[in-house]
């Protein structure tokens, strides 16, 4: 039973982070409009996917080094909360946005740290 739980703890943050990266990447598709040329669309996609590329790098590191990835996902979530609160919008709207974006990132980070802790314990 412990082996099944460890397998669950091992795969859950990895699968969730892949889904999270895809979710964040979907936001960049708003640059595709008929008025823009192909070059402008590609440029817009590259710029809008910078957070996605950063999360892919964090995921690649986290896959092998859970502690670094766990901390990085938590820091990314907290950084988003801080940026949302400083964006000049009402705090309650910033918090609701943060729950959607930063919440999963922090959860994934906690799961990576839990996996690291359980692996270190054995």
From TrEMBL:
UniProt keyword Membrane present: yes
Annotated TM spans: 7-29, 41-60, 67-85, 91-114
UniProt domain DUF7670: residue ranges: 4-121
Keywords: Membrane, Transmembrane, Transmembrane helix
Pfam families: DUF7670
Taxonomic superkingdom: Bacteria
Name by which UniProt lists this protein: DUF7670 domain-containing protein
Originating species: Acetobacterium tundrae
Record lineage: Bacteria, Bacillati, Bacillota, Clostridia, Eubacteriales
